Please model this.
Amino acid sequence: MKLLRYIENSITKPGILDSNGGIRDASSLVSDWNGSTIDDESLNKIKNSDLSSLSPVDPSVKIAPCIGDVKDFICIGLNFSEHAAEVKMDEPDEPIVFMKTASSINGPYEDVKIPKNSSKTDYEVELGVVIGKEASYISIEEAEDHIAGYCLVNDISERAFQLERLGQWVKGKSCPGFGPIGPWLVTKDEIPDPQNLKMWLDLNGERKQDGNTNTMIHKIFFIISYLSQFMLLTPGTVISTGTPSGVASSTGRFLKPGDSIKLGVEGLGEQRQNFF
Model:
């Protein structure tokens, strides 16, 4: 299933894409898509429901982030070999873990304000994983059982804040609007091989990133198992798994007001952001 959230009359509601790509109102089945409603049992009940009986939604509605009430937004850095090479950093022996604040989460089509005092705002197309079941000290083999689904993430970053100021990367990753997720939360049954998905990003119509999840250094199930050795992964947690080469920091051509980007991951939809 492709789950989404939309805004109607200033109220955020849960929706489902039907077989024709139309939005159906899922409010009669669930109050929202969040950590309490995306476990396997709940999703299987909804999958077996008569989705054609759900009311259609005006396709022009505003699309919200695909998962609500996110408590933890975890990211993995330098997880593509070609990206590590282009920014002149060594491939990490273990995953580089950092956080984005939940307040950075944004809808997939929202405009993004370049932060005050920014000089190096950058883009990163990424595959996001949404946890559906609590995970603690799990094995690689158990990891898939703890996944609800996958989503598209743009890990927007301010490189000067991230790398040229003291402290951790979170300062350059958490500005308002720096975490667009969605448009859809695609349940794991629709993504049989998350390690073979094309991913791309265009800046003002020019292809800048063109990669595939098969070149990840640390694979998705390993990442989930690894994180669970150090922290409790709760339902609704979003894990962004890294970006391929082509980021602005490799060319020096950073984002500026008036720029427009479009990005996608195979099977997970597309995003668009205008910067001002």
